[in-house]
Amino acid sequence: MNITIYGAGYVGLIGAVALASKGHDVLLYDVDEFKIKQLEAGNTPIYEEDLESMLREVIASGKLTFTLDIQQAVAYSPLQMICVGTPSREDGTANLSYVQDVVRSVVRHNHKAEKKLLIEKSTVPVGTHKQIYHWIESLDASLDLYEVASNPEFLREGKALYDFLHPDRIVCGVSSTWAQGLFSDLYKVFKEEGYPLLFTDIASAELIKQAANSFLAMKISYANMLAEVCEQVDANVVDVTKGMGLDKRIGKEFLQAGIGFGGSCFPKDVSAFIRTGEELGLNLGLLRETLLVNARQRDRLIQKIVSALGDLHDKTIAMFGLAFKAGTDDVRETPAIYLVRELLGRQAKVHLYDPVAIPNFQQMVKESQNVRYFSHAAETAKGVDAIILLTPWDEFMTLDYDNIRSNMQDNHFFDARNTMNKDQMKKAGFHYIGMG
Ligand SMILES: NC(=O)c1ccc[n+]([C@@H]2O[C@H](COP(=O)([O-])OP(=O)(O)OC[C@H]3O[C@@H](n4cnc5c(N)ncnc54)[C@H](O)[C@@H]3O)[C@@H](O)[C@H]2O)c1
Ligand SMILES: O=c1ccn([C@@H]2O[C@H](COP(=O)(O)OP(=O)(O)O[C@H]3O[C@H](CO)[C@@H](O)[C@H](O)[C@H]3O)[C@@H](O)[C@H]2O)c(=O)[nH]1
After folding, report:
1. What's the fold here for domain 292-433?
2. How high is the ipTM of this complex?
3. Could you confirm whether domain 2-200 is CATH 3.40.50.720?
4. pLDDT tens digits, residue range 42-65?
5. Alpha-carbon torsion (275, 276, 279, 280), positive or negative
6. What residues are annotated to the active site?
7. Which of 189, 211, 351, 384 is 20 to 30 A off residue 428, Cα-Cα?
8. CA 3 to CA 67: how far, in whole Å?
């Protein structure tokens, strides 16, 4: 079936490629002309495993096409899937202006007055569907022509295509059998492959997304809170969370203590959920604490660095990894930016390396007398006083650390992700410091 997707970012592009690979005819619209031209040429603006080859396949098969023409986008299908950004405003609320732009465009360019299903794929606060109906009304459009549905996305960056194609569940919030029928057709192949399709009302679907992200973030902060306890009592947080996670009711995922969560989703979505609570007159205190614990991890790492190295003036620190997690070049809300700014503020010099995220990071931190970028991890560490392992890329696990240590000025190794084997690092001559 035909589907129009608005927004060629992580979610829109991945969704477009994945749905096209399942045999649908997908038209991807974006306001960013450069991005659309790049995609038409078969090049991806983001780094994701397998994305480029699959993109080229679906372009070649004619299943995925692109447009900058809004009239063509609106006319293409009754399914209008909105995948634009919903970033945080200063006060923590979700900025829905890009969603509103799409709704406005669809309504204004629906010249044939065809019925359209406006699908919220972007992460939006519960109740947004009502807001969308208000926007439509305020445009003097007939509400009979539009129906809103919620179909939140749960993919993780770094594993985005895999997650879209192998979902734990597909959530569809609908208010009519018409919408339910369209989703059943869209996700028919997924259902046949055994992936659960959950139909519910729209508010519940919107809330499932807010609730799931906040729960996962809370789980990480719980592990980080335990890391603080472990440091006080000489326990090992990796073992503690392993022991907890073996209980099936708890589960081992998302209990990895470290520098805390970053990225374009958890920080903004937890903040937005707290604000949703406030608007409802509720105090979602668990989530406030989740953000506080998360921020504290970064400060704790800085404290550890200062207590090991003393005055950072003229010290040089190498950072292994800049992306907010492995497998992506995304640096939105990466802990690396906080740490680099904090270190530079204390007059340290930094040597920075990441296998794919340097171009994005350079847009925030330019090369200078105190900031140098490198193209190999081992080079980054030459002559430095300390290494911070920030992003757990696989390549950092297999480096020749004996050699790296011998080329350093001093021997401090801060494992902000608890990924290295402590004993082996000590054997290689490092003063190893983990998080908990
Ligand atoms: N990144 C993720 O891993 C992820 C996962 C699940 C859900 N989400 C949610 O999905 C939404 C999109 O996130 P993202 O990371 O893909 O964003 P993104 O910033 O990567 O992409 C957004 C795209 O929308 C385009 N855009 C802006 N205004 C537009 C308009 N009026 N019409 C068409 N295109 C327009 C932008 O040019 C950009 O290409 C957000 O709500 C996010 O919270 C993200
Ligand atoms: O045990 C863990 C797991 C993750 N993280 C950190 O948490 C952040 C988020 O990681 P992850 O969830 O893997 O990446 P995202 O791509 O941000 O995906 C999250 O946010 C998306 C956007 O809403 C959702 O779709 C996904 O389901 C949800 O996992 C990263 O900084 C990770 O390093 C930890 O510190 N410890």
Report:
1. Rossmann fold (3.40.50)
2. 0.98
3. yes
4. 999 999 989 999 999 999 999 999
5. negative
6. 265
7. 351
8. 13
